Amino acid sequence: MLDLATILAGLSDAFAPMTLAFVLSGVIVGQFVGALPGIGPVITMAVVIPFTFVMDPLPAIGFLIGIMKGGTIGGAVPAVLINVPGTPDAAATALDGYPMAKAGKPEKAMKMALYSSVTGDTFSDLVLITVSAPLAILALKMGPVEVFSLMIFSFAVISALLGESITKGLIALVLGLLLSTVGMDPEHSTPRLIFGEWAFFEGLPVASVAIGTLAVAEIFRHIAQTRHGSTPAAQTNKSAAPEDRRVSFAEYWKCRFVMLRGAVIGTGIGAVPGVGSTAAAFMSYAATKQSDPNPETYGKGNIKGVAATESANSAVAGADMIPLLTLGIPGSASAAMLIGAFIIQGIQPGPLLFEKQGQLIYGLFGAMLIANAANLFFGNFGLRLWARIISAPASIILSGALVLCLIGAYLSSGGMLGIWVMLAFAALGYVMTSFGYPVVVLIIAFFLGPRFELSLTQTLIVTDGNVFGFASHPVAVMFLLLTVVTLVLVWRNNQQTST
Q1: Residue 224: how many other CB atoms lie within 10 Å
Q2: What span, in angstroms and rounded, lies between the C-alpha atoms of 2 and 4?
Q3: By three-state DSSP, how is residue 2 classified?
Q4: How far apart, in whole angstroms, are the C-alpha atoms of residue 71 and residue 83?
Q5: Average pLDDT over residues 205-234
Q6: Neighbours of 334 (CB within 10 A)
Q7: Residues 119-122: contacts with CB within 8 Å, 24+ apart?
């Protein structure tokens, strides 16, 4: 366990002027891009990662965490005002948020979304701070065979739940693992799949791959879909009554059990790789509607519906960090971006991180709590501004984002090679999403590929290449059985849905 001095030193680092400035800036940027339908925090994180190369680890990762958390707030703005979610997880918020806006209560809906989002996010952060260190100690007791089996299980869950079908998810997974093998063979130090291009000896540029598949591909898609260069303007009738423009403490307190249930659901789902915040939001909404004595009021402007969805989808943000920090396994696109930032900084997420970088970890915990407070502060003052942003011309937003992508890819690779790789993966990402293949699975597999290969090599050595060697590792057998059960259950569910 970490000593108290290390914990206090890490928390104090979070309040250093440089770190504080970048966390606050990240929150503002996150709220800004979250309010823009189609941009979102994940794409923004992919774009800005190359610009964190020259920064210290804590300000760099704190900046990305601020973007991730701010995006959950911003995504609710267009969902409430124009019924177009700024982020996928805000789709459930629109069910009651938009009817509230049509009834003349847009500010009330947005403020309830803000308060419940901060509540759920803070709850999951406290769970993360409480359980992550003990889980890391437990993870250290796992050998290479157990780690290998755990990664197989995680890959199965992510592939099955993030794609339209298990087959497409597994294809994206295999492609990501294949791309991760480009470069030097870690066992024999021989080049693989570089095709005479020695710039690839250390592997494909991580930032260029992420920017291309996640950011540029979506920018191209939105450019193709944009008409006349402008997005819909938010036009709502505002009530003159003061009580329709604010959320009183009595109204907030009335939703306390709804927010608590949403936070618990979001935290539980966020700790499982691959499920995601969108599922958490709809599950919380369904649970709240079913438990309410007046379920017919939902979908017609019930403020509890907004509280249920926002507390759940925001709680996923903190819980996503549990498997990331303790096991080194990202369970979502935003977590994949964070693990990419860790790798760029020369830090390998996993249980050893608490031993080797304990001060950094608790600095991140402090940065997360600061980001929650900043979300509340800037959200209270910025909701009107973010509401205006969604009517900005799409041509300006998309072209500016594309320029940042080009600059980021160039800086991350030190030349034009990064830009060519980015464009190639942009084309790949565009084709994959067009045919329903999940690019997030590809990105996660690409980031985890080297670690998976190392675990596979160590497992073959421990078991002497004999599959029956797993018999002496019951935890590994359990994970493999869970893998089979997961795939079978998802396959049967898909079969029933299709019929």
Answers
A1: 8
A2: 7
A3: coil
A4: 17
A5: 70
A6: 28
A7: 119/259, 119/263, 119/311, 120/259, 120/262, 120/263, 120/266, 120/310, 120/311, 120/312, 120/313, 120/314, 120/315, 121/69, 121/72, 121/314, 121/315, 121/317, 121/318, 121/372, 121/375, 122/369, 122/372
How many C-beta neighbours within 10 Å does residue 294 have?
9
Question: Angle 40-48/57-74 helices, nearest 10 degrees?
Answer: 160
pLDDT digits (tens, 9 = 90+) for 248-258: 888 888 888 98
Mean of per-residue pLDDT scores for the chain: 80
Q: Which two tokens stand for residue 75?
A: 């995504």
Answer positive or negative: Cα dihedral of 180, 184, 187, 193. Answer: positive
CA distance 273 to 278: 13
Tell which residue, 22, 4, 19, 44, has the closest CA to residue 333.
44
Tens-place pLDDT, residues 80-100: 876 666 666 676 788 888 888
Question: What tokens does 346 get?
Answer: 């020369």
Helix 40-48 vs helix 333-344: angle between axes, to the nearest 10 degrees? Answer: 10
E-strand ranges in 358-445 read: none
Contacts with 208 (C-beta within 8 Å, 6 or more apart), sequence order: 409, 412, 413, 418, 419, 421, 422, 425
Closest CA to 382 of 88, 34, 64: 34
Backbone φ and ψ of 75, nearest 5°? -65, -25
Sign of CA dihedral 243, 247, 253, 257: positive
Residue whose structure tokens are 């700024």: 86
Cα–Cα dist 250/78, whole Å = 26
Handedness of CA 166, 350, 122, 25 (dihedral sign): negative
Neighbour tally for 411: CB within 10 Å:
15
- 124-162 per-residue burial string, b: 16 or more CB within 10 A, e: under 16: bbbbbbeebbebbeebeebebbbbbbbbbbbbbbbbbbb
**Cβ contact 120:312 at 8 Å:** yes
Residue pair 186/396 in contact (Cβ under 8 Å)? The answer is no
Global confidence as pTM: 0.72
DSSP state of 346: T
- Closest of 188, 143, 181, 141 to residue 463, by C-alpha: 143
* 3 state DSSP class of 3: coil
Q: Is the dihedral of CA 363, 364, 365, 366 positive or negative?
A: positive
Residue 232: per-residue pLDDT: 47
CB 433 within 8 A of CB 221: yes
